[in-house]
């Protein structure tokens, strides 16, 4: 179909096209008059994800920012957020809504407040506006109610986020506190088991950590080894200084006793260990001082040190398994103490977070009362109805023409190669373009085909 044929169809069916355009225009105009307007107000909230948390100091991971925003979009429509909005808008005492609730379907078993909260959720839209700005929109037939609803939604959303954070922190703090108490009890039990083993076997460990601990017999053996290495030179140079190493050790032990005496009690295992070690070292010092006064020879000194060294080696080797078991017990004590310390620190941190006043969100700007309804858009509806009517008229005109095809010009005869047009009979007046004229044209076409 050529442009000429299409224009001829439009010209022949112009009345149908105009009628469709007028009726659709009237329908669109009627819609703009009848349909209830809907106003939409918008509130903005800034997500404070770029700055560290006030309590934990953590910064949000932007790889999870997309799922985080999707979660917030669903939370805005949650009952915990929409229910306070119902209260602030005063819908619970609205007679019209009470009547609508009473006429609801029998299958709807929701209570009145949840039924109204569902309506708030249906009118709410939320999403990321730009950057870290979160947008919350609320629609209503009243511009004032739309503004109040958007404000109430924003405030309820911020309050719910803060309350949820506090509740979660409180719940976790209680759990960590209970775990810390369990860890403390287990640490006390491990400490009691270690002390009982020390009393039963007469072994005292020195040092704070299991890896750095050493029993008194091993410490005495190390002192004897050091003394054996330095005894010959000390005996030759100055016999009175043979006990200088033991004296230094004795002074160090006295300093530790004086330092820990105020912090630890006299019955503390570490104080008992230090006193036992001091007694051993003091005995060594006394023996060395007596030997120095007697002026023994180098051979006698070396022999005495060697005998003491061999005896101490025998003692240490005999109780090696007990010492290893004691170290395992002390490792258990250190582990329980470390667990107690970590859980206590985490519980204290969560307790602090439970009283935080920062929800991680900040309201941005004020909610402006809308001046124009978001729906219906009257210019768009009117222009759309005109375009729709014109398009519908054109489609109907073409369909009617295809179902009842007529010859409106020479182009309509070009559907068969054996059909030749000999002449075109035209008319000057519109009323002559009737059945007779069409019959003449048809007859001329048939005559041409016969020729």
Task: Report what the structure shows.
The strands form two sheets. The chain has a four-stranded antiparallel beta sheet with strand order 2-3-1-6. The protein has a two-stranded antiparallel sheet with strand order 4-5. 65% of the residues lie in helices and 7% in strands. The chain is elongated, with a radius of gyration of 50 Å. The two termini are 27 Å apart. A hairpin with a 7-residue loop joins strand 4 (205-206) and strand 5 (214-215). Mean pLDDT is 77; it is low at 209-214, 234-243 and 428-451. The chain has four domains: 1-35 and 376-405, no CATH class; 41-173 and 352-364, no CATH class; 204-318, no CATH class; 406-451, no CATH class. By secondary structure, the chain is α+β, with helices and mostly antiparallel strands.
User: Helix amount, in percent?
Assistant: 55-70%
Helix-and-strand structural type = alpha+beta
Average pLDDT confidence is 77
User: Low-confidence runs (pLDDT<50, min 5 residues)?
Assistant: 209-214, 234-243, 428-451
- Side by side, the strands of the main sheet go 2-3-1-6
Strand content: 5-15%
* Count of helical regions: 14
Morphology call: elongated
